[in-house]
Amino acid sequence: MYLSRFLSIHALWVTVSSVMQPYPLVWGHYDVCKTQIYTEEGKVWDYMACQPESTDMTKYLKVKLDPPDITCGDPPETFCAMGNPYMCNNECDASTPELAHPPELMFDFEGRHPSTFWQSATWKEYPKPLQVNITLSWSKTIELTDNIVITFESGRPDQMILEKSLDYGRTWQPYQYYATDCLDAFHMDPKSVKDLSQHTVLEIICTEEYSTGYMTNSKIIHFEIKDRFAFFAGPWLRNMASLYGQLDTTKKLRDFFTVTDLRIRLLRPAVGEIFVDELHLARYFYAISDIKVHGRCKCNLHATVCVYDNSKLTCECEHNTTGPDCGKCKKNYQGRPWSPGSYLPIPKGTANTCIPSISSIGNLPKFNRIWPNISSLEVSNPKQVAPKLALSTVSSVQVANHKRDCECFGHSNRCSYIDLLNTVICVSCKHNTRGQHCELCRLGYFRNASAQLDDENVCIECYCNPLGSVHDRCNGSGFCECKTGTTGPKCDECLPGNSWHYGCQPNVCDNELLHCQNGGTCHNNVRCLCPAAYTGILCEKLRCEEAGSCGSDSGQGAPPPGSPALLLLAALLGTASPLLF
Predict the structure, then answer these.
(1) Which is nearest to 230 in space by CA: 248, 246, 215?
(2) Using the 8-state DSSP alphabet, how is residue 483 labeled?
(3) Where is each Laminin EGF-like domain found (predicted)?
(4) How far apart are CA 480 and CA 486, in angstroms?
(5) How far apart are CA 537 and CA 380, in angstroms?
């Protein structure tokens, strides 16, 4: 009976698991840009955020080596096998295809035996460093979606840096350091991704986990993308809604996983010992058999397709956007400023579609859910509008006489037509909006990405901390511009080395680096409370030094020669010989 009950429960669990398991994998992947829906007005398009599928991005990259002549084989040379470093009869010859190891072999199909690999020249110029830069370029912004995996055919290097660029290689920043001894190589304490958290996920670390010497089973180095995703989506990446929400609201997090170029800096080959064997320098070289980089084209959530044409990746933009990254509105669709799509609200997100320009409304189709019902708007009395819009350069000011020309997204029912400029503008925008069509937010407010443009709550107050922010305005994500030493979305937190005191002020003292001296105590990190005999910022000076009386009988300097205090000290110590002063 117990067995049958157990089997029934097990079968039920398997059924539930099989149904639920695909759910987080497909939900919220944003693979559709628009779909047709039925409304009271008939069949219309419903727009949503969308992005291309993740793929192997090594198929589209260009590789560059520095120095350019670092690949082995020109001239031909022999090198030692990794498994037996003293068997040095292997040959590298660039003129013979079977013996050549060019850079493209880092990205070819793996699975053949023997494996193919790129290889550097050996360390024959020791003690001059053997260093190589391998730059991977896409000429396109991409978003990483899986671990970067580098497979070495030689031993994994003793020292290596993985770097990224967001501006097509003009500037670089470290992604992660790798070393057999992080403290010695980079003056950093060793860490692994497991030591990080949601709050420190952007920290640049040095790891010793992947930098061992000559071990035939230790060939792979990772840069852990998925482990960092797991801080938000859970260990099995099932809670993708949480991850997408974080990527949408935290620009620095999204930028962390975004690159235009990657650079692998090989700084020291696998030695495997304390000292380099100068009699067998053919043992030391770099060899890489495979590099995996998975990601997707960055299309700002305005495309599901990224095409590769003429050696260039380009998004096939939707939502009336254009550009390599869908980063601007198409001509005649500039009725409001361009904005990237938003992952929120889950699961469809917000398309933030570019809408028709006001001068071309009559020639373009209507966009439901983005373009409100224009016929419901009223037009104001001429006497109410003209005084507010009277300009010296305008010959006549008239009220709009076509209701379809007055488009304010429900934030105003009053418009004015300026004859000279042949344009219509909204008057007295409400709900903290502004602009020609009430399409922008007032200064001190930012766009609510989860609200439609005609929503009364489309603009949210910035709430910048007045003591920590430069001004009361914020960017499109709600982040305020902070004063020096201040951080946080609302500029209400202090950077390390600063403390809050009517705003963030640099620490005068603390209990780590800036210790109060001579018995002083640190008061709220802003000043040292010094003993009576001492003064200075850190109580580092004798008070008598300022008055120039330390040698007098002020009592704050050293006891004068022959003083009773010294005679008493000598007596206590049992000094046999007389004191000499």
Answers:
(1) 246
(2) P
(3) 462-511
(4) 11
(5) 67
